[in-house]
Two-component system response regulator GlrR (Silvimonas terrae), 454 residues
Amino acid sequence: MEKPHLLFVDDDADMLRLMALRLEAGGYRATTVASAEQALAQIAVECPQLVISDVRLPGQDGMALFEEVRQRHPGLPVILLTAHGTIPDAVEAMQRGVFCYLTKPFDAHVLLEKIAQALNLTSSTGHTPQQVDQDWRSGMISRSQIMEELLGEARLVAASDASVLIQGESGSGKEVLARALHRASPRGRGPFVAVNCGAIPEQLLESELFGHIKGAFTGALANHRGLFQAANGGTLLLDEIGDMPLPLQVKLLRVLQEKAVRPVGASEPVAVDVRIISATHRDLDAAIAAGQFREDLYYRLNVVSLTLPPLSARREDIALLASHFLTQIAARYNKAVTGYAPDAVEALVSAAWPGNVRQLYNVVEQVCALATAPIIPLSLVQRALRLPAQGILNYNDAKSRFERDYLTQLLKVADGNVTDAARIAGRNRTEFYRLLQKHGLNPGLFRQGGEGVA
């Protein structure tokens, strides 16, 4: 079994050597660094399962290091050590989320005991922090700060059983975030069930959610477990919750209050243990004001709110997402497409993206399907985005394009006869030949029946 990986931070070289030996002897794999900056770089390369840091460090101190770790990896525990500890410092550190605070000189056995407690706490979900950081957000491809902050909040929320409302524009990735929340939660090994509340007719949605018994209505030929029962022990995503009809909102509220569903036609409720995540692109406050959404249900669902930014608000993610999607789609289509031309990337990054990540995926799928070379050109991206193939040309380019199109048209009319084409253009034959040579036009290609010039 692989040894737990610990990161130890101290600017004292002797302490680093001593702690490396003690931690290795305690059954751990230890990495040691001498500053907070080195620690952050090491975490970016390989996330440990626990960070132990001195408070007094050159540059950033241990508390600043902790704040950065908490923001980037909220589930990663930190133990702080100091030779200058005071009770107020310890209280403040614990209130801010530090796992524990030990004063130097500390008892090595006490430190090992605290390490074991921290690792036991973080492994209670069945995942180590390193595994969680690698796996739970695998579908959320991002490098933007706004998304990192959102994912940090999501990671913290996942540890609880609180209902979460995910808001965001259509196509922004609400279901992907919901799946990430589920994977990071203690329910991660249970089922994840998603239902689009706006895609199922009202008369069927109740049976789909809560189930029905045989004979409950015409066509009910057998007992049917609803999605609440299917998600028992796991997570149920109620997508587009803002489109749920009002009568069903009342029944959903009762289910959330009683933690039990009553299948259609049944006389007895069935207990369910489900974590609810809901999602919507609608303004629910406006829907409540318009009498289209129940306020009491809103507060049941919106214990914690997470808002996904539109793709246009995180443009630094566009090239990363486009590359990720291209790799996936090229493998599925068995095509040797490896990347984008620089101007194609520029067009992707600067596009409006009203359809968000879903639209980007569709664009990448289209350019991959139409690609005839390993590198995606600008023209394919413009076609997929329905952009003009060319913007306003400068004068020389416009003049050159006009000349070429004009000469091509003349040669077609004259059946490739240069003398006739020059006469129509009002130019002498020698001058006309120079124009043809300038634009690389062979008049023989325009003659019916083969090459030749006149």
